[in-house]
Amino acid sequence: MISRYSLPEMAELWSDQARYATWTRVEVLASQAQALLGRVPEAALADIRRARVPAAARVAELERERDHEILSFLAAFCEDIPDDSARWVHLGMTSYDLVDTALGHTLARACDLLLQAAARLRGVLADRAVEHWDTVCIGRTHGMHAEPTTFGHKLAGFAFAIDRSVRRLEAARKEVAVGTISGSVGTYALIDPFVEKYVCAELGLGVEPAPSQVVARDRHAQLLQTVATLGACVEQIAIEVRLLSRSEVREVEEPRTAAYQGSSAMPHKRNPTTGERLTGLARLLRGYAGTMLEDVALWHERDLSHSSVERVAMPDALIVAHYQATAAADLVAGLEVFPDRMRAAIDRTNGLAYSSAVLADLLEGGTERERAYRAIQAAANGAISGGDDLGTLLGAEGIDIGPLRPERFLVHHDVIFERLEALRDLGH
């Protein structure tokens, strides 16, 4: 992923040098396990442990000669090991014993970073939901004015959505944090299963229960679908911010730095560019999720069609998701909220926001439903076209609705608040 949408701690996990460092660790652990079985001499193990991580440039140089990255890595790694000891490296293993076990470790670490970012976003949303729990605003359905709600209620809905994504991501992390060291077609023909058990335990990984030559790719597809779902939840937040930031609405505004410039031609512009960026990144994540589904079905025990896809899709998706969740938390934390404009939007409905409460009152008072609905609808149409207040128009028809306030719609709001407080406690 380009540096513009990368944060260093996540991007570093996917660098060539980091990959070779993890491969080195897997090879050393495998040699340690073999030594415990008595298959690798202790002197050779000492030499293998002392070997340095090969430089990415050296592996690339050797790959131009061999056209095989794993063999090139092993050649570069063994350059730092005496010949008598180097022959014990990679004993009984096939290439993807190394690659997939290392990948499981990298994916687990990447998931941990993403989980931290998503948990922070959940916490920021919950905190600001509590802050604005009583900030009344107009709810909108189909993009149209509906009934009063509160801005805190909106944010609470987003917080719970991110919480569900966190829990899905925790489950997906467990599924991808696996390895296999089982040989060319997964039968352990030339390697003792103890090696796999030892290496995976040291790396904090589970074991693929019925390996072929690779870890099953449905695991990775599940992870990227989970990441895409998190991205879609972030997109929902971003779109709400964008809609509420429009000039004629301006109920919220993205945080701005002193250096902000919104348009090269129009100095007055204050565009919701962060929200737009988060929306665009969600589209990328959905694309990567679909691509990884194509990797699940491989030929027989394996083919190599998944490799080129994963080299792009997995790093890019996790880097983008990490950036997106982090940027979303910053956006929500610094979001400017304008309660007076929110209340004014309710008042500008000329009482239309209270039509459902008026209908309920008439029904409770004994008015037949169709008659009550038609009377309110006719008055509402008059308020929309003529600008008069709904109550005034109904009063002219002999229907006294009395004073109505947004708080009428919030009588059971404490039920949701209790759920929010329980969610908020997860982050404290």
Automatic annotation (TrEMBL):
An annotated Gene Ontology molecular function: lyase activity
Chemical reaction(s) catalysed: (2S)-2-[5-amino-1-(5-phospho-beta-D-ribosyl)imidazole-4-carboxamido]succinate = 5-amino-1-(5-phospho-beta-D-ribosyl)imidazole-4-carboxamide + fumarate; N(6)-(1,2-dicarboxyethyl)-AMP = fumarate + AMP
SMART domains: ADSL_C
Protein keywords: Lyase
Known pathway: Purine metabolism; IMP biosynthesis via de novo pathway; 5-amino-1-(5-phospho-D-ribosyl)imidazole-4-carboxamide from 5-amino-1-(5-phospho-D-ribosyl)imidazole-4-carboxylate: step 2/2; Purine metabolism; AMP biosynthesis via de novo pathway; AMP from IMP: step 2/2
Domain Adenylosuccinate lyase C-terminal: 350-421
Known EC number: 4.3.2.2
Top-level EC class as recorded in UniProt: lyase
Family as reported in the entry's similarity comment: Belongs to the lyase 1 family. Adenylosuccinate lyase subfamily.
Family annotation (PANTHER family): ADENYLOSUCCINATE LYASE (PTHR43172)
Stated name of the protein: Adenylosuccinate lyase
Protein source organism: Actinoallomurus spadix
